[in-house]
Amino acid sequence: MRFLSSILFTLFTTSSTFAQEQKLQQLRASPSQQAQAQAHNTQQHRYLNAREEEKGVFVVELSSFTTEDDDQNEHRQRQLHDQRRSLIETNSCKLYQEDIYYHVGPEDQGNGSEDKWACTFENYYDGNSGTSSPYPHTVDIEGYNIKQSLKQANAISGKSYLHWSPNTNDVSIDRMNTKLTINVDIATSATIWIDSPTPIITRTTTNPNNIFNRRSLQLPVQPQQTLTTGDKKTLVIRVVGNGIGPAASRQQLYEEIFGAGKSLKSQMSQCSGDKLTIEPFSGPTGGALNAYIDGGVVELRITTNPNGKTDKQMENDSNAAAAYVFGRLYEQFDLVLFAMPPGIRPGFAAYAYIGSPFSYYSDTSIEDVMVQMHEVGHNLGLQHAGQGAEEYGDKSGYMGYSSTIDPRMCYNAANNYQLGWYSQDSIRPTASDGYGGTFTISGVAGYNKNDQTKFVSLRLEQENLKSSYYIGYNWAFGANTETQEDANKLIIVQKAGDASASEISWKKAVLSVGESYVIDNYDGSGRYVNVTFARLDDVDAVVDVIPEALPSVSPSSSPIGVPSSNPIDVPSSEPSILPSVSPVTDPPTQFNSWESTWESTVICDEASIEFNIQTDWKPKEISWRLTEKETNTVIFRVNKGDITSVYTSVKTSLCLEYDKKYRFKMWDESKNGLNGGYITGNITGTPGYFEAYYEDDPSRSIFKIKGDFGRKKSTLFIPTRPTPSPTPLPTLPPIA
């Protein structure tokens, strides 16, 4: 009697061209080599049998822990016990946030959505199951106040590791090896901790004669980073369990993920401005059979019956199978989408791990671009977009949720800032070096990479409160035509943590033209910040961000001191010299507040530099910005429309650090620079210019650039200390 059931894996590749078939033949081993490999595998793994049944079809028999229906099977129980012991003795696993969306219906046990933590033994090797490649074995985490404990420990999905001491009873794993329970409070435990050490590969066997004894091989792992730009090598695996598979065929899955119509590839490309491309993987793989993939979609047939199985049971069986056929997935692919069969309980639509390449879709859910973009968004590090009390409530972008199939929309302002696909800016309105101003914000479809005066996402940073507000214009056009709510409105969202943090964003306000939103006690400053959707400039939103003015300082009481006596010195005589010129009685020229020379009242111990802009006849078209080169931090800026007086010298003095690199950048809306222009008739005005010099020595010029620079001009400079004058040598007396 055979005590171990087998998983039968059949890989169907898509049709190949003649050249690809030749390449396949080169990759395949000869029959004698296959026989040798099979004999070797049989010696090493008692329950492994692999063969190439026909061209493009790979058959693998692999023992499994989860396919045997008889829970009382003694041999199976021993296997489960050995696996459980080896997992515990690994003493660490990698933490992932898992975001899962459930089906809700009379036959389902789901409850809508759930955010939970899971832990992955990244390179688990099980000699009994016959896998020749380590695979990621994932378990759910339960325990006392687990979410809060991991948050307090600053656990980061995909980066942090959970550790426990050897021989501790504070960690246990259930009998199906799909759930890890922490039996103590992590915050006070001396046996459990979180950090980021090097993970290991652990091989396990109950055969004492096997050359791979438990924990005998420990190798550092360097998984491929999940980035938000570039070409993504993508693999779609259609999982068929015991003859039960998802509704879509392999060809349909190709169209859904990589097709020219509404697909993951086309929508991601449009939403990212072609910064991220979903590419179907084609080429050889590193598995036991050197399988060649053509077209990015494969089918994996296993004998595990999905009916009644949990998501972790099916996930781990599928990963073990894929690891044997293709090798380590995360080393070869940037994204792996599993199209799972129906029948898994509780019934779910899809789930993904933040910062991981893996996402899982139940049956027909993978056919919806809404679900695809949402789950891959998690892979890219994004969290949900909420509104009110609903974590999925912000339906303006993909990280919320909509029941509409295949809507054409993108992500919200916080997501866009985190992804880094578009022009963006960050300001601190109430900080000592902060400012408000007027900003032009484009919708995603209006993004122009050549126009750095406009932003797709504007961040209002709060340093003290450790959260930020993000402003975006939800223009319903192009890739965002079918946004599910708040079309053509200004949307303000708030997200905790820094810009790259995987935190939920919460919609705070939706503004039409002329409406404002007031952020009270901004960053704990006691001052408010007012955000106003001022107007539309063609298809862009013009937004005013105005912090509350600082209160004027007045004496707390009348002076208490009085002179002790009358002054003792008086003028000896009348002044002998009178003014030769009468005082000027004409009223002073009125300047815009930006146009008057700005002088710092703070003593500058570094480089005091004056920037002088000589305007032409259209000063309102000019804008400029000074940033720190390495961090791209904005030091000072003048927005379009701030300068209004023609043919005027506008000076700004700033205190900058010596030996630090800065970038000065100027734009002209008419794309002709400070070229002078026409005053009346055919009389040409004087061209303008811009320059910078040291305020204490104007002869030390940093740069001076003529006004005919076209649309924009950028220059880098580094403030340098003045060269000290040489000390004169003392004059020696004549030698007698």
Describe the structure concisely for a colleague.
With 736 residues, this protein is of the alpha+beta class.
Explain what you see.
The chain has 736 residues and is α+β, with helices and mostly antiparallel strands. The protein folds into 4 domains: 6-66 and 224-387, no CATH class; 74-204, no CATH class; 417-547; 607-717, Immunoglobulin-like, CATH 2.60.40. 14% of the residues lie in helices and 32% in strands. It has 10 helices and 38 strands. The strands form 6 sheets. It has a 17-stranded mixed β-sheet that branches. Strands 20-27-26-25-24-21 form a 6-stranded mixed β-sheet, covered by helices on one side. Strand 26 (490-496) and strand 27 (505-511) form a beta hairpin. It is elongated, with a radius of gyration of 34 Å. It starts with 5 loop residues before the first strand and ends in a 19-residue tail after the last strand. Mean pLDDT is 78; it is low at 1-48, 65-71, 104-111, 197-226, 553-602 and 678-683.
Largest sheet: 17 strands, mixed
Strand content: 25-35%
Using the CA coordinates, give the radius of gyration: 34 Å
Cα shape? elongated
Please indicate the count of domains: 4
Helix-strand layout with pairing:
Blueprint: E1 6-12, H1 18-27, H2 31-44, E2 49-54, E3 57-63, H3 74-90, E4 92-102, E5 113-126, E6 135-143, H4 146-152, E7 161-164, E8 171-173, E9 179-182, E10 192-195, E11 201-204, E12 230-241, H5 250-258, H6 264-271, E13 276-280, E14 283-284, E15 292-293, E16 297-302, H7 311-326, H8 329-332, E17 335-340, E18 348-353, E19 358-362, H9 369-379, E20 385-387, H10 413-419, E21 424-427, E22 437-441, E23 454-455, E24 457-462, E25 467-473, E26 490-496, E27 505-511, E28 516-519, E29 529-537, E30 540-547, E31 607-614, E32 622-628, E33 634-638, E34 649-656, E35 662-668, E36 689-694, E37 697-706, E38 712-717
Parallel strand pairs: 5-11, 6-9, 12-13, 12-16, 12-17, 17-19, 20-27, 21-24, 22-23
Antiparallel strand pairs: 1-3, 1-16, 2-3, 4-5, 4-7, 4-18, 5-6, 7-10, 8-9, 14-15, 18-19, 22-30, 24-25, 25-26, 26-27, 28-29, 29-30, 31-34, 31-36, 32-33, 32-35, 35-38, 36-37
